[in-house]
Amino acid sequence: MNKKEVLKKIKIIGEVIKEIRQDNNLINQNLDRHAQLVAKLRLLIADEEVQNYTDNIEEILVLVDINKGFTITGSYQNPYMNALVKPTNEEAKLIQESDNKMLLVINESHHENSREFKTLNPDNPLPHCIEGTEEVEYADSLKWILEAYPVFEKNTTMAAHAPGYLDMFFIFPNLKRVRFAGGVTDICYFEAVLSTIKFFDQHDIHCEVIAEENLYDTYDAPWHNRDEWNAMTNKFMVQAGAKLIKKM
Fold first, then answer.
1. More exposed terminus of the chain, fewer Cβ within 10 Å: N or C?
2. What is the rounded distance in angstroms from the CA atom of residue 140 to the CA atom of residue 67?
């Protein structure tokens, strides 16, 4: 099996699932197009090499918003998110070398006039991570991940609304663990962990969800104490069913 070629197929599967979800407006849905997309997806998933690969995957690392808009530029850049780039890259390379592990990416990519800008800051909207701009790109050391693995964009903090993200888990029948890297801990990261746990609960999928403290962080500001929010969110994640790990 040529792993590089199989990953290309997996990436295409992610794109097709994303299209299906984006086309899933029951009021305006193009049924012919929807049927074509579903047929295409079934053919891709039925591919023997794809099945052999996905059947073997036991662990997935999900990256959450480790883009330039949170690491080195823009309204929400912060040094704590930027410090995650190196350890995330190290973890991702270990996964790339493994035959039973996989990467998925959730990336903040807002519409130009995203409603969320005002929802989060009614008195001072802060546009960030707008699709097509530098802020949605990854740091140079991580760009290879976006090229090789499925990427799911969201126009909100909640990962569950990144079209196609949660559906991807259905194609890995023997998945045992999902780990998360990224930020910010108390918003996008927590919502990704929570929505994934609840997706598994909804579908009775027995899969461990892991949050590793060396792979996530949040920002520090006069109105937002980093240590307090990290500690508080850790409690919420454990309460929701996540396994919290702190590597030494």
1. C
2. 10
Are residues 57 and 156 in contact, defined by beta-carbon separation less than 8 angstroms?
no
Domain holding 51, by residue range, is 1-56
Tens of pLDDT along 67-118? Answer: 998 899 888 889 999 999 999 999 999 999 999 999 999 999 878 888 887 7
42: phi then psi, degrees, rounded to nearest 5: -65, -40
* 130 SS3 class: strand
d(CA 186, CA 50): 36
Q: How many domains does the chain have?
A: 2
- Regarding whether 70 and 31 lie in a shared domain, the answer is no
Q: Rounded to whole angstroms, how far apart are CA atoms 221 and 88?
A: 24
Q: Which of 128-132, 173-177, 185-189 has the lowest mean pLDDT?
A: 128-132
Mean pLDDT, the chain, as a whole number? Answer: 92
* Residue type, position 134, single letter: E
End-to-end C-alpha distance for the chain, whole angstroms: 36
Is it the case that residue 248 has pLDDT exceeding 70?
no
Beta bridge partners of 81: none
Phi, psi values for residue 110, rounded to 5°: -80, 150
- CA torsion angle for 52, 55, 56, 62 (degrees, to 10)? 120
Tell me, what amino acid is at 88? Answer: T
Residues 33 and 63 both lie in one domain = no
Residues 75 and 152 in one domain: yes
